[in-house]
């Protein structure tokens, strides 16, 4: 065999091997994010085109920020932090600026973040001077040996970490002041025996808690949730949001969940962990587990609200038993949706 033929054969074999290697190259791991802006949506009949467009724009901005982190190769923890920070700064939502007011007229903020790798978690509750509670929750996770810091202790920790505090007025908006007045009036009417339109938790209503769950290219899950809680809540009331397992949970063994709804029910039903436990121990799909907890257990107990959830395969579930849930999702397989009500167009 001539040298030339031999060389050609070797080159042909190498080309074949190369083609084989290409065909067998694994697809890029999926990345995905889902966010919510609360289960307490405005009734459809009262929703104007303008307000709907504003909510959609707010959700889109947060989705783009979070998904952008993932597509640039960033971590799921960075993605959920970026998405939630944008929603905290948007006064339409019940977190950060524009958070609902407690009975005394103050915003008292709760937030939690959890990294499914580890897992690691950080949370803050009842803070009144922290512009972005999700960033403080992350500092608790990354720079303290603790999981949950509350009130002045949490704010002292913020100062120790070099975070600037903001005056309480920063959070107040006219819309929330108006809601508080209405809630107080309804409370007074209830006390005097007149019928009221309030929700099942006495003296409280809510709208617009925010959260995010994400899966990054390294296969790590993360969850983050931030809220002002419930309008007219008692000073010092802490909801499900900052309680790991109730309103926020992430583990690479199962799933990541962020919840929104009447926190007292979420705490009693340990909603976020329950969903992940069903996935982990009962091997349910994420959709089955979410349905079991949100549509069966939570509903049976009288709890109203919803969740967003994500597993390591990139499955996204956004389930709720309320009339709607502001929500959005995007993944590397081409899914992108922004929705509010059960059957809304995307
Ligand atoms: N879960 C929040 C709380 O109870 C409120 C909400 O999601 O709207 O604090």
Helical content (DSSP H or I, runs of 4+): 25-40%
Q: Characterize the biggest β-sheet.
A: 8 strands, mixed
Secondary-structure element series? HEHHEEHEHHEEEEHHHEEEE
The small-molecule ligands in this entry are: aspartic acid
Radius of gyration using CA atoms only: 23 Å
In CATH, the homologous superfamily goes by the name (Glycosyl)asparaginase
Q: What gap, in angstroms, lies between the N and C termini?
A: 65 Å
Question: Which architecture per CATH?
Answer: 4-Layer Sandwich
Low-confidence stretches at least 5 residues in length (pLDDT < 50)? 18-22, 196-204
Strand order of the largest sheet: 4-3-2-6-5-1-11-12
Q: Explain this structure to me?
A:
There is one protein chain. The chain is of the alpha+beta class and 346 residues long. The chain has one domain: (Glycosyl)asparaginase (Glutamine Phosphoribosylpyrophosphate, subunit 1, domain 1, 4-Layer Sandwich), CATH 3.60.20.30. 38% of the residues lie in helices and 21% in strands. It is built from nine helices and twelve strands. It has helices at 3-24, 49-71, 76-89, 133-143, 151-160, 174-191, 263-269, 271-281, 286-301; strands spanning 32-36, 109-115, 120-127, 148-150, 210-215, 221-227, 248-250, 255-261, 305-311, 316-320, 324-331, 336-341. Strands 4-3-2-6-5-1-11-12 form an eight-stranded mixed β-sheet. Strand 3 (120-127), helix 4 and strand 4 (148-150) form a beta-alpha-beta unit. Helix 2 (49-71) packs antiparallel against helix 3 and helix 8 (271-281) packs across helix 9 (286-301). The protein is globular and about 70 Å long. The termini are far apart. Bound molecules: aspartic acid. Aspartic acid (ASP) binds next to strand 8.
């Amino acid at each position: 065999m001539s040298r030339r033929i031999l060389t050609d054969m070797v080159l042909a074999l190498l080309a074949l091997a190369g083609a084989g290697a290409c065909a067998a190259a694994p697809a890029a791991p999926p990345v995905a994010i889902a966010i919510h802006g609360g289960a307490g949506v405005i009734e459809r009949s009262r929703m104007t085109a303008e307000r709907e467009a504003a909510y959609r724009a707010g959700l889109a901005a947060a989705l783009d920020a979070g998904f952008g982190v993932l597509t640039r190769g960033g971590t799921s923890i960075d993605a959920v932090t970026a998405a939630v920070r944008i929603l905290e700064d948007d006064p339409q939502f019940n977190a950060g600026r524009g958070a609902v007011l407690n009975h005394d007229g103050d915003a008292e903020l709760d937030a939690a973040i959890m990294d499914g790798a580890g897992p690691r978690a950080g949370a803050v509750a009842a803070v009144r001077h922290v512009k972005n509670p999700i960033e403080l929750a992350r500092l608790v996770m990354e720079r303290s040996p603790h999981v949950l810091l509350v009130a002045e202790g949490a704010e002292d920790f913020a100062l120790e970490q070099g975070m600037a505090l903001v005056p309480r007025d920063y959070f107040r908006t006219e819309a929330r002041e108006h809601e508080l007045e209405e809630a107080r009036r309804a409370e007074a009417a209830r006390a005097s025996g007149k019928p009221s339109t309030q929700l099942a938790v006495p003296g409280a209503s809510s709208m617009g808690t925010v959260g995010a769950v994400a899966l990054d290219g390294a296969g790590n899950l993360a969850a983050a949730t931030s809220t002002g809680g419930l309008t007219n809540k008692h000073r010092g009331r802490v909801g499900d949001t900052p309680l790991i397992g109730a309103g926020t949970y992430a583990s690479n063994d199962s799933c990541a969940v962020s919840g929104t709804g009447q926190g007292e029910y979420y705490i009693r039903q340990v909603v976020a962990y329950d969903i992940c436990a069903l996935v982990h121990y009962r091997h349910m799909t994420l959709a089955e587990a979410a349905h079991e907890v949100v549509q069966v257990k939570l509903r049976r107990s009288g709890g109203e609200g919803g969740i967003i959830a994500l597993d390591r395969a990139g499955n996204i579930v956004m389930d709720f038993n309320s009339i709607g849930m502001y929500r959005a999702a995007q993944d590397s397989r081409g899914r992108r949706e922004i929705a509010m009500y059960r059957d809304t167009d995307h």
